[in-house]
């Protein structure tokens, strides 16, 4: 069973019962997978959740005052998850290293391009030159929610007309070829005399 962040855990570590007033939370090494409770913590500024089993950054987008996020050694595989952090304008320090997504070629430049507000990534300061390089060569990431929506829209658009599309190719197919290409080859008289026994 996936271990989740609970109110009891948060209260025990922060000594604050009102989740909306928590500014700092340290739950590193807790084997957490589900951190959806973060949605109730809009005022948190520093989160230390390294050495867990978190596989998505979706819940962090609700922490609007987040300045520092330590989430190294988790299970973030999709680099596009970074896009969930894009609206966090106060986020200055992100430590995401030692996640599977950090092994993707172009990881650092892609993250810097997606999160230009960062000052430090994986405990290394971001230079102005690196920022310019990220804007020029950093991979453009797609928001995971947009990908899901696009896929469902494509399915929706293609499924109602699928029967019509299957009937059309017999007409379109002939238009793609010239008459010579489509016509069966002419047999020479010599071939007509050959009999097969």
UniProtKB/TrEMBL annotation:
InterPro entries (alphabetical): Leu-rich_rpt (IPR001611), LRR_dom_sf (IPR032675), U2A'_phosphoprotein32A_C (IPR003603)
Q: Where is the composition biased (Acidic residues)?
A: 147-156
- Give a Pfam family name: LRR_9
- Bias (Basic and acidic residues) occurs at 135-146
State any GO CC term.
photoreceptor cell cilium
Q: Protein name, please?
A: U2A'/phosphoprotein 32 family A C-terminal domain-containing protein
- The reply to whether Repeat figures as a keyword in the UniProt entry is yes
Give the originating organism: Callosobruchus maculatus
Sorted keywords for this record are: Leucine-rich repeat, Repeat
| Start and end residues of each stretch annotated as Disordered | 135-197
Q: PANTHER family, alphabetically?
A: CILIA- AND FLAGELLA-ASSOCIATED PROTEIN 410-RELATED, LEUCINE RICH REPEAT PROTEIN
Entry's transmembrane regions: none
Domain U2A'/phosphoprotein 32 family A C-terminal intervals = 104-122
Q: Where is the composition biased (Polar residues)?
A: 163-197
């Amino acid at each position: 069973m996936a271990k989740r962040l609970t109110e009891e855990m948060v209260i025990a570590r922060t000594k604050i019962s009102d989740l909306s007033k928590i500014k700092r939370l340290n739950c590193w090494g807790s084997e957490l997978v589900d951190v959806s409770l973060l949605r109730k913590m809009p005022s948190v500024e520093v989160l230390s959740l390294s050495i867990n089993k978190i596989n998505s950054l979706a819940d962090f987008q609700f922490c609007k005052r987040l300045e520092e996020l330590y989430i190294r050694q988790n299970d973030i595989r999709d680099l596009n998850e970074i896009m969930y952090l894009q609206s966090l304008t106060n986020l200055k320090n992100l430590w995401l290293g030692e996640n599977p997504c950090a092994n993707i070629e172009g990881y650092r430049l892609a993250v810097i391009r997606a999160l230009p507000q960062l000052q430090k990534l994986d405990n290394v300061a971001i230079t102005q030159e690196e920022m310019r390089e990220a804007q020029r060569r950093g991979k453009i990431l797609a928001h995971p929610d947009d990908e899901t929506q696009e896929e469902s829209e494509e399915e929706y658009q293609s499924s109602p007309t699928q029967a019509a599309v299957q009937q059309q190719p017999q007409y379109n197919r002939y238009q793609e070829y010239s008459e010579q290409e489509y016509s069966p080859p002419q047999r020479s008289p010599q071939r007509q005399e050959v009999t097969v026994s």
